[in-house]
Design a protein that fits this description.
By secondary structure, the protein is of the alpha/beta class. The chain is built from seven helices and 46 strands. The structure holds 2-acetamido-2-deoxy-beta-D-glucopyranose (12 copies). Belongs to the RLP family.
């Protein structure tokens, strides 16, 4: 028995001589490469020649049954160095090479072409693309890097077994897509997003009968899309946004019968054949945002109510109405539709009543068209409606009563229409989740209902340019959304439609299209109304506000003393009111203020000073007030310390009284005394003090110049 064992061992050891030499070469190649690294984390510790007999137990590698390395994987490992010293020819059995997020830099050496068995290559380093064509066994390829250079070589056509090809976000891959891509007949996925690819889409792509996903967004590809693109019966997704494609979008895109997603936004397409979508029964997501498409809206919808979930045709030249010639609405029986963006086109007509019944509708943007008429009434509002943007149309009538049941509404924009009547008091109760409310540039009148400040989540309230009267309501305790610093909204509401929501606000004097996605924003704009009385003091509790615009009203009284509490404030416009008294010293606490406007009021006294206020040097922001002084306007009489100023003011006052007392003192003093103490209105008292303040300022100035002339004369 023992002899038999010995014979067996001898028989076995002969192939081992060859086999073991191969394995030893693999171990040596790895150890040599390890030695070339500037640093490596502890996971590479077992890599040592002393351990070469147990190669298959080393970290980061996988072996086959014979003990050869089939997989080398550095995924999220902390290495520093290059691949230059890695001898790829030592790994004839390597099937997978995975190198992501590991700190290696430089290029993948040409020797990678020796990995004749390689089936999967996933790297975030720069390979010499020309060598990729040698890897003829390759079935999956991912290259992501920010510095990949060169072009896709024609030899890529040799990779006839490749299924997914993902070469995304390599900002320097230029030139065109080689026509040889048509030889890679196993391809099911092409990701070439975010490169610098130019030229036309090669027609040979239509040979890829197994193609399911084509992602070419964010390149510089141009020309027409060849009609056969749709021939693959497996084609599911075509994403070609942000290129320079032009011409008619091919009418045969849905011939294959499986197309689900088309994203062709931000190109130069000029039209869509009216039959294009008629056969697209499987289409779910359609995006043609920002092309130059001249078409009838109706031609962009298949007759099959089918599966359509989302369409975006914003920023084109679509015409037509939401109704057909027969007066029916062709949208409402698309029951799966949840996203509809038709903004910035030339659409007209009314909003059909049945839109309230679209169960899945979550986002509707009809802004910047010529829609008109009254928003139809409905007793119901579907639970899904989150975004309703009807701005810049010609809608009329009162605040739409149908909204009363829209409990889930998150953003409502009715701005720039011809809505009239009162703002209903139920808005905050009925729309508890509202974060953005824009009613600006309409004909709303009457008072602002005090319930408006019961929105707990509201971040942006824009009621500007209406005909609102009465005071600003003054209980802000429930306006918690503005009483704290806003976090980036995207983290709080993971909603893929948020990034499509654009709302126009005026911020820092600029008409600004504001994406909700970057919504750390919070602000109130009540400008351009007829609001009166004082600015409520409670507003200073809204410490999350980044802008406040009360310009162009009839507000009077003093600016709230604690205005400086709103520390995040970047833009404050109180111009064109009747505000009086001093500008509160707390203003100096506004560390972020970059746009400020107090012009055309009745303010007086010294402008507060502070580091940030010092940077606001435009004098016009204080202009047209009777008695303001200090930087950036003229100094307040003299620039000595406040204590001295007060003292000299006292002295001046004495001088004044001694001049004027005999003539007018008695009458004036009597009036002053009773004026102040009889008045119970704080507003009036504030204005009166300010009047006296002004008088005092003017007279002291005279006396001061008189005295200085006297001294100047005396010293001559
Ligand atoms: C051999 O590998 C083991 C772990 O597999 C490790 O603990 C040991 O330190 C290695 N030996 C040498 C000499 O590096
Ligand atoms: C990687 O290693 C370097 C030095 O060896 C070290 O400074 C760095 O913090 C490490 N990084 C991580 C993510 O562990
Ligand atoms: C890659 O293939 C080309 C021919 O296509 C050949 O000339 C070259 O030597 C090969 N490179 C390697 C490393 O095998
Ligand atoms: C690729 O296909 C073309 C035809 O489209 C053929 O002429 C060419 O020889 C093929 N190239 C390679 C490298 O196989
Ligand atoms: C694409 O399909 C159309 C009809 O659906 C057919 O006429 C044409 O020959 C096909 N083209 C290719 C390249 O398969
Ligand atoms: C886009 O295509 C048009 C022709 O359709 C061409 O005139 C223009 O130069 C192209 N723009 C870029 C950036 O390639
Ligand atoms: C859509 O609804 C209208 C009536 O509202 C109906 O006439 C039409 O046939 C419906 N379309 C489909 C495709 O069901
Ligand atoms: C409104 O649409 C026109 C073209 O229809 C466009 O030029 C304009 O920029 C759009 N305005 C906004 C605010 O989107
Ligand atoms: C707005 O509606 C009023 C009637 O409520 C009408 O008199 C006025 O002409 C409309 N304005 C515009 C710009 O459509
Ligand atoms: C604040 O909200 C609570 C709960 O919704 C309500 O009871 C209270 O009346 C509100 N306060 C004001 C001042 O609106
Ligand atoms: C305040 O609103 C008015 C319009 O009502 C606008 O002209 C002004 O630019 C706005 N101020 C700021 C600072 O944005
Ligand atoms: C301040 O507001 C007035 C009136 O609203 C305006 O005319 C002026 O341009 C504004 N100044 C600045 C610097 O924005």
């Amino acid at each position: 028995m023992k002899h038999l064992h010995l014979v067996g061992l001898l028989l076995l050891s002969f192939p081992c001589l060859l086999l073991c030499a191969g394995i030893r070469r693999e171990a040596e190649a790895l150890v040599k490469w390890k030695a070339s690294l500037a640093s490596a984390d502890e996971s590479l510790e077992p890599w040592s020649l002393a351990n070469s007999t147990s190669l298959c137990t080393w970290t980061h590698i996988t072996c086959d049954l014979a003990g050869h390395i089939t997989k080398l994987e550095f995924d999220l490992t902390n290495l520093s160095g290059t691949l230059d010293e890695l001898d790829f020819s030592a790994f004839p059995h390597m099937e997978e090479l995975i190198m992501f997020g590991n700190g290696l830099h430089g290029t993948v050496p040409a020797g990678i072409g020796n990995l004749m068995s390689l089936v999967e290559l996933h790297i975030s380093l720069n390979p010499y693309l020309t060598e990729i064509g040698n890897l003829t066994s390759l079935e999956a390829l991912t290259i992501t890097s920010v510095t990949l250079t060169g072009s896709i070589p024609p030899t890529i056509g040799m990779l006839t077994k490749l299924r997914p090809m993902m070469v995304d976000w390599n900002t320097q891959v230029g030139e065109g897509i080689p026509m040889e891509i048509g030889n890679m007949t196993e391809l099911n996925t092409i990701y070439l997003r975010g490169n610098y690819l130019e030229g036309h889409l090669p027609g040979t792509i239509s040979h890829l009968v197994k193609l399911q996903e084509l992602y070419l967004s964010e390149n510089q590809l141009g020309g027409h899309i060849f009609p056969e693109l749709g021939n693959s019966s497996l084609l599911d997704t075509v994403k070609i946004a942000e290129n320079n494609f032009s011409g008619l979008f091919p009418s045969s895109i849905c011939v294959g019968g499986a197309l689900r997603v088309v994203d062709a936004g931000y190109n130069g397409f000029i039209g869509i054949h009216h039959l294009t979508f008629q056969h697209c029964t499987t289409l779910q997501y359609v995006d043609f945002t920002a092309n130059n498409i001249v078409a009838e809206l109706r031609d962009c919808f298949t007759e099959h109510p089918g599966s359509l979930v989302s369409m975006a045709f914003s920023q084109n030249q679509m015409s037509g109405t939401l109704l057909t010639d027969r007066g029916e609405d062709f949208l409402c029986n698309r029951t799966s539709l949840n996203f509809l963006d038709l903004s910035s086109n030339a659409l007209h007509g009314g909003l059909p009543k049945c839109f309230w019944d679209m169960q899945n509708l979550r986002f509707m943007d009809l802004s910047n068209n010529s829609f008109s008429g009254v928003v139809p009434f409905s007793m119901t509002c579907q639970d899904n409606l989150r975004y309703l943007l009807l701005a810049s149309n010609q809608f009329t009538g009162t605040f739409p009563l149908g909204l009363k049941k829209c409990k889930t509404l998150f953003a409502l924009d009715l701005g720039g229409n011809n809505f009239s009547g009162r703002i209903p008091s139920w808005v905050s109760m009925s729309l508890p989740e509202l974060n953005f409310l824009r009613l600006s540039s309409n004909m709303f009148d009457g008072i602002i209902p005090h319930e408006i400040f019961q929105f707990q989540q509201l971040r942006v309230l824009d009621l500007s340019k209406n005909k609102l009267t009465g005071p600003i309501p003054d209980d802000f305790t429930n306006l918690t959304g503005m009483a704290q610093e806003q976090k980036n909204i995207a983290f709080i509401y993971p909603d893929r439609y948020l990034f499509r929501v654009r709302i126009q606000i005026i911020w820092k004097n600029v008409d600004y299209v504001y994406y909700l996605l970057i919504a750390s924003m919070a602000g109130i704009d009540l400008s351009g109304n007829y609001l009166s009385q004082e600015i409520p003091k409670g507003i200073t509790a809204l410490i999350g506000l980044r802008y406040l615009n009360l310009s162009g009203n009839h507000l009077s009284g003093c600016i709230p003393e604690d205005i400086g509490n709103i520390v995040l404030l970047e833009s404050l416009d109180l111009s064109r009111n009747q505000l009086s008294g001093k500008i509160p010293q707390s203003l100096a606490a506004l560390k972020s203020i970059s746009v400020l406007n107090f012009s055309s009021n009745r303010l007086s006294g010294r402008i507060p000073t502070g580091d940030q206020l010092r940077t606001l040097t435009n004098r016009s922001i204080y202009s047209n007030n009777p008695g303001l002084c200090g930087f950036p306007l003229e100094d307040c009489i003299n620039s000595s310390t406040p204590a001295q100023t007060e003292k000299s003011l006292d002295e001046d006052r004495e001088a004044l009284w001694s001049y004027c007392f005999v003539a007018a003192g008695f009458i004036f003093g009597f009036w002053l005394y009773w004026g102040i103490f009889l008045s119970r209105s704080e507003t009036w008292r504030c204005a009166f003090y300010q009047y006296v303040d002004n008088m005092q300022g003017k007279v002291t100035k005279k006396v001061y110049s008189c005295i200085s002339r006297f001294w100047a004369g005396g010293s001559e």
